[in-house]
Model the fold of this input.
Amino acid sequence: MSRPMMVPSPAHPITVVPTPSRVVVKVDGKIIADTTSALTLQEASYPPVQYIPMADVDQSLLRRTDTSSYCPFKGDASYYTIATSDRELPDAVWSYETPYPAVDVIAGYVAFYPQRVELTIGDDN
Done:
């Protein structure tokens, strides 16, 4: 079955811009990601999402899962569990590994569910 590829428009805008501040992601005080190269993706009226370069994530704490989802504006998303020595957070991280052309700049980046981790933006991390 073919999935539609939709293009952002004034009715459903998507912008991706460099985040001007440092972004740090922690779980139980342990740094999972730390970057000054994040991208802020703003889609329509949804809250902005921080996309962090995979290179700035402690990948030893990520375990790929079989979960996937589809967005007609961004494409297919893959998911990761965060596994620390204390606990696991299933499907807390997602990535559009081959995103649609309108948002292809997020390839190689991951996003974290902010309600599942401690995500801070600013220089006082």
In short: The chain has one domain: 14-121. Residues 14-121 form a domain with the Metal Binding Protein, Guanine Nucleotide Exchange Factor; Chain A fold (CATH 2.170.150.40). The CA atoms of residues 2 and 46 lie 26 Å apart. The chain has a mean pLDDT of 95.
